Amino acid sequence: MHPATLSPAARERSLAALGSGQELDVLVIGGGVTGAGCALDAVTRGLSVGLVEARDWASGTSSRSSKLIHGGLRYLEMLDFGLVREALRERGLLLQRLAPHLVRPVPFLYPLRHRGWERLYAGAGVLLYDTMSLSGNHARGVPAHRHLSRRAALRACPSLRPEALVGALQYYDAQVDDARLVTFLVRTAAAHGAHPLSRARVVNLLREGARVTGARVHDQETDQVFEVRARQVVNATGVWTDDIQALVGERAPVQVRASKGIHLVVPRDRIRSTTGLILRTESSVLFVIPWDRHWLIGTTDTDWDLDKAHPAATGRDIDYLLERVNTMLATPLTRDDVAGVYAGLRPLLSGESDATAKLSREHTVVTPAPGLVLVAGGKYTTYRVMARDAVDEAVRGLGGSVPASCTDQVPLLGAEGHVARWNQRRRLAQQVGLHVDRVEHLLRRYGAAVDEVLALLRADPTLGEPLDGAEDYLRVEVVYAASAEGALHLEDVLTRRTHVSIESFDRGLTAARPAARLMAPVLGWDDERIEREVAHYVARVEAERAANEQPDDATADAVRLGAPEVVPAVVPAVAVAA
Fold this sequence. Notes:
The protein is 38% helix and 22% strand. By secondary structure, it is of the alpha+beta class.
């Protein structure tokens, strides 16, 4: 096994390996959950693998989801039984084998508003949902659903308006820290020998006649441009699928349509409840999801054709979610209750429907040109299946004998030994001088890899103090993010390695400078670089706040783009290699 770290030194090794001119078996473009899954799938089959991402790991859709691992209860109503069964099977795998340290059960209350028929109708659907979760080799991994009277429902969620329901159903799904799962996928792939490189933008595809033979890559951290040769290239770029396909110079056999979804982050005390909620809207469903000391409320579902890197939430989006959730709450939420807002884009396969809520969440894998595999569509929960299918297609292009996918048997870093570490949490807390609640927090974020975090604490006990301006996180987590988790910029730490940017009312402005100073020794920053990182982060927060006040997508997008990228996207002029 190789070191499972995304340290600065490991980045240099990946950069050297990818720029060496040695041909890889597979080059994966896109560092979201699907691309990271592809890299892990390919490398665990014995293939040589490179993985490049234009920005930070999970910086697009894969860090801006509803943070759920679920079968998609509403897809039963659409009669999409195959998708639901597949997703529930993957949910069980993640809960019990692949990532039990990152994925955990979460309860949801479905309020019933009509007597008689609705309980029978909704109850049959939830019963089918639970039954389908038993179809794989793993048990469902979550408790079974139950029927509640109105009184029992109000005990579980006292914040509900009594007149808004006649009873309820409670069922379970699972939730995940989406960005952290991607980081662990990348680290696990690296541990098996893959060469991951973030902040490395593909500026062209290499060609030999009609065949794609690799990519020309611009490393934005060093400003190097180099060629990566590969026998197969996998395009796993989500909403950027068509952009990469355009480099081939031919029309893509499938088109991806972006749908914007936003979420509000509200402190836990604003809604009195021991369970999440799922509410019907006129076009879809609305979730109120427990998230540590907060609630996530979402999501919207609207067409988006503007900037893909930084989709903006408008004032209208925020008001829409508040209006919908307030139909059920005894004490309405206001703008003042919203600590954070984030927006993401779902990569949906373009179809005949005008409504993005009705487009397919199933995925497709095609070969638009010899040597190039395209995987698109799908949902976060089924990333492993998407990756398997994409690598299967790449393997057909490689020829010869390549083993079948084994990722259903490969726990992610931190999974093995997690249960034992959890059982030892009180002893660990005593050893490092932390409260047991702090150790539990670390275990839920790192699993058995917590040993590496605690080693940093033992070397410098001051790192066990809370981060200024973000007391839910410890200073050591910032240092670990830069030294082992591939965080190259302040934004990476405050938005993806932690969630300070959406969990604090000041969006992380107070924590910005202390976090930058903790990162500086690890990444070799001087005072000027610290100030530049802080200034960029402040500009980003100001632009997002201003965008949240705009009435429509066009003006919100224009305001959000007022904050420049943390790394200037200087793309050199290049031509397709002959």
